[in-house]
């Protein structure tokens, strides 16, 4: 039994050397942009992961809202609480919470 093989030649054209160099140049530029974006993403991701701690720290320092000039310092409030406790201050229980009367 005789086998016949057909060979089909595909003629393809490739870009000129100059065009190939331009393509490589553009692809390299796009990869450089992608690398820069990835680095920026990683940097922002690290900052976002630290954000809850930073917010909590600012909250404890009182930096999230402007200070009301009529607010007493915490030290004055603590002195009042100590004085009331020393007097055996009145304690009211309301909704499961204990309130000190001043």
From TrEMBL:
Keywords of the record: Coiled coil, DNA-binding, Restriction system
Organism: Runella slithyformis (strain ATCC 29530 / DSM 19594 / LMG 11500 / NCIMB 11436 / LSU 4)
GO terms for biological process, alphabetical: DNA restriction-modification system
Keyword Transit peptide: no
Key word Coiled coil present: yes
InterPro entries according to UniProt: Restrct_endonuc_typeI_TRD_sf (IPR044946), Type-I_RE_S_subunit (IPR051212)
GO molecular function: DNA binding
Protein name per its UniProtKB record: Type I restriction-modification system, S subunit
Coiled-coil regions listed in the entry: 27-54
Domain of life: Bacteria
């Amino acid at each position: 039994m005789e086998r016949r093989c057909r060979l089909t030649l595909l003629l393809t054209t490739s870009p000129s050397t100059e065009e190939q160099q331009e393509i490589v140049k553009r692809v390299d530029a796009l990869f450089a942009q992608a690398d820069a974006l990835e680095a920026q993403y990683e940097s922002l991701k690290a900052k976002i992961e630290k954000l809850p701690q930073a917010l909590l720290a600012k909250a404890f320092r009182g930096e999230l809202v402007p200070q009301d000039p009529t607010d007493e310092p915490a030290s004055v409030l603590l002195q009042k609480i100590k004085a009331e406790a020393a007097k055996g201050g009145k304690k009211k229980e309301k909704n499961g919470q204990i309130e000190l009367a001043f």
